[in-house]
Amino acid sequence: MVYGERRELKEFNGLFKEMMDLYYETALRSGISNSAYDIFYAMVEMGDGCLQKDIADYYHMSRTTVNSSLKKLEEQGYIFMEKGQGKNKLLHLTDRGKQLVQERIIPVMDMENSIYREMKNGDAGEFLRLLKEYVTIYRKKMKEQGEGTGYENKNSAV
């Protein structure tokens, strides 16, 4: 079956998948798993003492994935967890974790920032505005279609 999608949608889908592949390759080149990479990245963005649940929510990762990755990182000596309020766990980098972040995460963040600086005046802001608009409309459409169709069940299998 061939779906007559718009050229723009086909191009967007290709670019989106390419971007995901690039981030996956970046994690591989760093010698760490994709989920561990995202956790280190988030810890840099959110700062010392960030919460496990905030990483899961912000990066749209399952709490189970975040939890199991954090346990491995703790066992490997990259992070330590401190009990917060209720069930919350505060996350901290160890010296070993700080060294890994300096060597493998910060250079990528610097590269990403340089990409935005290389964009023409206003293009970076426009790019983000349009992407946010796309996500907002997509979420709205999913909600509209989700009423009684099974889309609302995140755990349904195909």
What does this structure look like?
The protein contains 6 helices and 3 strands; from the N terminus they run ααβααββαα. It has 158 residues and is mainly alpha-helical. The protein has one domain (7-142): Arc Repressor Mutant, subunit A, CATH 1.10.10.10. Helix 1 packs across helix 2 (34-46) and helix 3 packs across helix 4 (63-75).
Q: Which descriptors would you attach to this protein?
A:
158 residues; mainly alpha; Arc Repressor Mutant, subunit A; 3-stranded antiparallel sheet; 6 helices; 66% helix; 8% strand
Helix count from the secondary structure assignment = 6
CATH superfamily: Winged helix-like DNA-binding domain superfamily/Winged helix DNA-binding domain
**How much helix, percentage-wise, in residues?**
55-70%
Distance between the termini: 18 Å
Query: Globular, elongated, flat, extended or rod-shaped: what is the shape?
Result: globular
The main sheet orders its strands as 1-3-2
Brief summary:
The protein has six helices and three strands. It is mostly helical and 158 residues long.
Helix/strand layout:
Elements: H1 7-30, H2 34-46, E1 50-51, H3 52-58, H4 63-75, E2 79-83, E3 89-93, H5 95-118, H6 123-146
Antiparallel strand pairs: 1-3, 2-3
Helix pairs in contact: 1-2, 2-5, 3-4
